[in-house]
Amino acid sequence: MADPKTLADGALREILESQWQGVPAVVLRSPPGAGKTGVAQRVALQSARTLEQRCMVVTQTNEQAFDVARRLGGNADGFPIHLYVRRGLDLPADVRGHRNIHIIEDFSHIPQQPAITIGNAAKWSWISTGEAMFDLQIVDEAFQLPDYRFQLIANLAPHHVLIGDPGQIDPFVDCEIERWRCNPAGPQVSSPAALIKRHPGVMQLALPVSRRLNTDTVRLVQPAFYPDMPFQAMSADRELTFEVAGIMPFDAALDAVTGGAKIVLVELPPQLTGERDEEIADELVASIRRLIMRRPWVRDDGNIERVTPDMIGVVAAHVSQVNAVRERLGRDLADIFVETANKFQGIERRFMFVHHPLSGRADASAFHLDAGRLCVMLSRHRVACWIFGRQGLAGQLMGYAPIGNRALGIDDDTEYRGWRAHLTVMSWLAKTGRVYSAVHNMLP
User: Fold this and answer.
1) pTM beyond 0.85
2) Is 58 helix (H, G, I), strand (E, B) or coil?
3) What interhelical angle do 4-20 and 36-45 show, nearest 10?
4) Which run of H or E residues covers position 239?
């Protein structure tokens, strides 16, 4: 098997060469944490500086636009970066004060010379023109952009590079889509998928490594969520150690990580709780406190640091579950980031605590079975992940096996894909001995 760094360098070289060759459209698939935004940066700088093109970068949110601007603004030669935003937008101080970032609030001020201009898809869609304003359009997190929104901005450039993670949550469309269910290139479909369906010959590339996920995590995440896109972990130099030895029952789940199991499942007794489960919230927060109490150290790519709350994240499917955890975190744990899977896309932490989306439910609805949602939850960590749920999840899945009710003409069965991903995860955790019983709620 080739060295991960060699594979990563080869993939980057291929995407950069495609621009010299004048390829009209490229779809670049990426596993979680592969450095796709870094690739977007390299493509943008090559376009503007070397090929002397006008390059536009499309993001999905203002926050993503700020992040890309910060990264590009730090280029070694001080090449100016333009940020296209709505008038009066409250900008972060470091963005507004950055010497290499130029703020543009008016359409007429967009540079006509070779340059890089960044803006979110909504802002770009307000431009009404019959002529291309740019030479290259780069869409970051493209699989989060529905095709109807892509069509509003595609005419702004004759060449496109769509970069994104196909395993993430599908684009959100807040209208009835029944009339397009049988259209594999419908307006509700992610822009890369719709583009490929309409133009099967479009150039498709894939990043073959993950810089975030460790080797143990890739062994689960790749077959469960990316069966047709093999990739490797870039680094294996990550581990958790404790100064305080494990003496409490739950320490077995913590110590499993020190032994090499980077994803484990902690089970509470079976119970139907509905959306908000107070006992799981109690158990989850108690486990975080126990982690901190044992005075842990983390080694991450050669750096050894004391584990602090800001290295920890908690992810859940529902806002009510997020609030249940936040209510239990004191001031000492205020730096822990707690959010839904949708808000966690694009974010990483060293350690993650996950409220399983099917836990405590009597059914297995499409929302809770969604493969993208579970993929986000299990791919945010760099070092370790603890999943919390009620016993009987595997049986729950078997009781709600998909019936194959697909729309005519649609090859992808999203219900089956989600069911298969969930079952693969549960089966793998059981077979590898990574299931532990919750005990904090039983302690005096």
Assistant:
1) yes
2) strand
3) 40
4) strand 238-242
